């Protein structure tokens, strides 16, 4: 099956979804998506990806081998609820892969929504940036039932990697990995803002560059990359807190969610917090 053409539906035309759709199409898959309810930016991404647009859900999934849900984590349950009735009535059942950054408990709830459809449900977690930004692209970790149609996507340019364990294992890996990387970015942004408020941002910048050059380099790259993504990371931080399920440290991620929510608002309004963070990055903190 790995050498044959797959028909893949990509739900979600954000930066990641559109780039994945393009990679699949360029590597020989027949790729479909929907633009219903999407804006001009999504339409432009899909036009660049050159994939087929079908805005009727039943026709979109008809005859598909795989459905990939790649949406912001807060939208993942709604996507499953939207497509469950359509997939329940489909003659041919695709494998449904939830690729979203959600907690294991959340993905199990999504699996329960999909269970009556008769589709094989796969838990997925994407680690890495969109295809095209790096030659190798992101890793797609999957758990749950072994499914040849998912393995076949390796032949269409996706780095599919299996995590031993049931539905929830791939999401757990994604939560732990994102909790470190995006948690560290939140911690750095919070301390930069705190240092500015205390009048020591320039001193902090100099000390990090001197004693923690690797961390300094990480923050000066990751903090500005975060501004336009902060709105999406709010729900992801909440999912990480849910993943920790009352363990010590869960409240730290609720705090990170609140921080990212504030930064998202500042980015939309071009507020002073963005200017402060960017001044630090540009080595102009005063």
Helix-strand category: alpha/beta
Total count of helical runs of at least 4 residues: 12
Query: What Rg, in angstroms, do the CA atoms define?
Result: 20 Å
Quick one: overall form?
elongated
Helix content: 40-55%
Give the total of beta strands: 8
CATH level-two architecture of the largest domain:
3-Layer(aba) Sandwich
**Main sheet record:** 8 strands, mixed
What is the average of the pLDDT values? 94
- Give, in order, the helices and strands: EHEHEHEHEHEEHEHHHHHH
Q: How much β-strand is present in the residues?
A: 5-15%
Q: What's the CATH class label of the largest domain? A: Alpha Beta
CATH topology of the largest domain: Rossmann fold
Please report the distance between the alpha carbons of the first and last residues.
Answer: 60 Å
CATH-assigned homologous superfamily of the largest domain:
NAD(P)-binding Rossmann-like Domain
Task: For the largest sheet, list the strands in their spatial order.
Answer: 3-2-1-4-5-6-7-8
Give an overview in words:
The protein has 286 residues and is α/β, with parallel strands linked by helices. It folds into two domains: 7-167, Rossmann fold, CATH 3.40.50.720; 172-281. It has helices spanning 15-26, 40-49, 57-61, 76-88, 104-114, 148-151, 169-198, 201-211, 213-226, 230-244, 250-269, 272-281, and strands at residues 7-11, 30-33, 52-53, 66-69, 95-98, 121-127, 139-143, 159-162. Strands 3-2-1-4-5-6-7-8 form an eight-stranded mixed β-sheet, with helices on both faces. Helix 7 (169-198) packs across helix 12 (272-281).
């Amino acid at each position: 099956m790995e050498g044959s053409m797959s028909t893949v539906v990509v739900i979600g035309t954000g930066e990641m979804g559109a780039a994945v759709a393009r990679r699949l199409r360029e590597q020989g898959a027949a790729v479909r998506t929907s633009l219903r309810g999407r804006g001009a930016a999504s339409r432009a991404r899909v036009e660049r990806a050159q994939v087929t647009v079908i805005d009727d859900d039943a026709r979109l999934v008809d005859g598909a081998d795989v459905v990939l849900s790649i949406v912001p984590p807060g939208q993942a349950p709604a996507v499953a609820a939207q497509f469950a009735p359509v997939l329940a009535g489909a003659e041919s059942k695709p494998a449904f892969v939830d690729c979203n950054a959600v907690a294991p408990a959340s993905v199990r709830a999504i699996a329960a929504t999909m269970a009556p459809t008769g589709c094989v449900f796969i838990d997925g977690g994407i680690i890495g940036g969109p295809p095209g930004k790096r030659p190798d692209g992101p890793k797609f970790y999957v758990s749950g039932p072994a499914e040849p149609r998912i393995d076949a996507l390796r032949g269409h340019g996706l780095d599919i990697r299996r995590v031993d364990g049931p539905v929830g294992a791939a999401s757990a890996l994604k939560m732990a990995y994102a909790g470190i990387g995006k948690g560290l970015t939140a911690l750095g942004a919070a301390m930069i803002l705190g240092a500015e408020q205390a009048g020591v941002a320039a001193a902090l910048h100099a000390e990090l560059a001197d004693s923690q050059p690797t961390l300094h380099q990480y923050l000066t790259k990751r903090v500005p990359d975060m501004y336009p993504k902060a709105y999406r990371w709010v729900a992801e931080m909440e999912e990480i807190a849910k993943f920790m399920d009352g363990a010590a440290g869960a409240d730290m991620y609720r705090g990170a969610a609140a921080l990212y929510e504030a930064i998202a608002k500042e980015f939309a309004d071009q507020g002073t917090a963005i200017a402060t963070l960017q001044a630090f990055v540009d080595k102009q903190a005063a």
